[in-house]
Known about the structure:
Blueprint: E1 3-10, H1 14-22, H2 24-30, E2 35-38, E3 45-50, E4 54-64, E5 68-74, E6 86-96, E7 99-107, H3 116-142
Antiparallel strand pairs: 1-7, 2-3, 3-4, 4-5, 5-6, 6-7
Helix pairs in contact: 1-2, 1-3, 2-3
Amino acid sequence: MDSIEREVYVEARPEQVWTALTRPEHFATWYAFGGADIDLRPGGQLVMRWEEHGEYRGFVEKVEPGRRFAYRYAVDPDVDPAPGNSNLVEFTLTPEGEGTRLRVVESGFDRLDLPADVRAKQAEDSANGWDRGLEGLAAVARNL
């Protein structure tokens, strides 16, 4: 499996979803529970922290305010992203009715320098994380 795709309808305007997605103080309430740093510009540093998992480093790849946000991160803690150890996460926001359709795609699992069973476990863990995370993001965005 190369990628995971999830999509959710959020009962909030795209600008609210964008804020929940890209502001570190909000990102840390629905995904990186130990805190986050996001330098919101292409090439900017991104750090996600979890008390139980450690610190994951990455960088911003794409910023289209209110529409698209993408970053690359190392799948192992405490290392910088590089070919063979990192995945790309891309969020796309689309206005829909009174709310927003949010799509996330995490790709690169088949290019990780890991045994097949470890790559599969990585994909499964990421899928579960996005399922829980997107529910949390929807709740956060509604209250902004």
